[in-house]
Write a structure and sequence with these properties.
By secondary structure, this protein is of the alpha+beta class. It has a single domain (4-116), classed as Nuclear Transport Factor 2, Chain: A (Roll). The protein is 29% helix and 48% strand. It is built from 3 helices and 7 strands; from the N terminus they run H-H-E-E-H-E-E-E-E-E. The protein has helices at 4-16, 20-27, 47-59; strands spanning 28-35, 44-45, 61-68, 72-74, 77-88, 92-105, 108-116.
Amino acid sequence: MNTVPEIANRLASLCNELKFVEAYTELFADDAVSIDPNNKNEPITGLHNLIEYEKQFLAKVEIHSINVSEAIFAGSYFSLVFSMNFTVKGVGDKQVEEICVYKVENGKVVSQQFFIG
């Protein structure tokens, strides 16, 4: 699985199955970077750090539903729309829609950025 469409489809499939950590492990480069507004848009660098950040998020939420769109492509980039309904423990329910933009190099995702609507 090396092409941008293959990676995009695999990522969407894993996320729809709530297999977020598996998606990182399988599809992301060791030096991948993530920019997330929930982290004040401060870059998170390195696969290990991305996985730890994801595990922390998953530990404080209960996801009720998720829908990941078909990908849109532009060269080495692709974009997915995530629609998620979840409960943040101790806070309450949230409905989130976000556009996620990914860059692929050498068969791995090297960057991701989230834009929350």
